[in-house]
Amino acid sequence: MTPSRPELLSGMALAVFKLNGQFLEIAEGLARPVGLTAAHWQVLGAVLKTPLPVAGIAREMGITRQSVQRIADILAENGMVEYLPNPAHRRAKLVAPTEQGLAAVQQIGPAHAAFADRMCEALGDEQAAGIYRRLRELSDALEALDSGEDGT
């Protein structure tokens, strides 16, 4: 018997909440040896390719600006990120990784790759790619619904 739509929504939410906890626990274990927390690693990861303002990091991560600001300030105090002038906004500085921050993330790389290998071995590469694709689709659908793009 197919679950009702409210049961599907609740089931998806509960599964994602559990996955979030599992991923955070894994991330903590990977980040801890280099002196970072999962949250620190998450903020650093958001600015590896390009510096972003705190609000931009928050949007990317789906968390509050205040949470990102607190973590960015801690990372800045520890020399992992620096605040740079933002040509697009005088007051909203850009967060950029320092050499020390980049080195910390690079140190996580081998353990991260090893865990990724174990996970993909357990699931199979095709299934892992399919799960990733479906999670992105779910996120995109929720974003569209939240922004009213669904026409309601």
Structure description:
The chain is mainly α and 152 residues long. The chain has a single domain (32-146), classed as Arc Repressor Mutant, subunit A (Orthogonal Bundle), CATH 1.10.10. It has helices spanning 5-31, 38-46, 54-61, 65-77, 99-123, 125-146, and strands at 52-53, 81-84, 94-97.
Please give the structural blueprint.
Blueprint: H1 5-31, H2 38-46, E1 52-53, H3 54-61, H4 65-77, E2 81-84, E3 94-97, H5 99-123, H6 125-146
Antiparallel strand pairs: 1-3, 2-3
Helix pairs in contact: 1-2, 2-4, 3-4, 5-6
- What is the end-to-end distance? 29 Å
Mean pLDDT: 94
**CATH architectural type:** Orthogonal Bundle
* Unreliable residue stretches: none
Q: With helices defined by DSSP (H or I, 4 residues minimum), what is the helix count? A: 6
Gross morphology: globular
As for the CATH topology, it is: Arc Repressor Mutant, subunit A
Estimated share of beta-strand residues: 5-15%
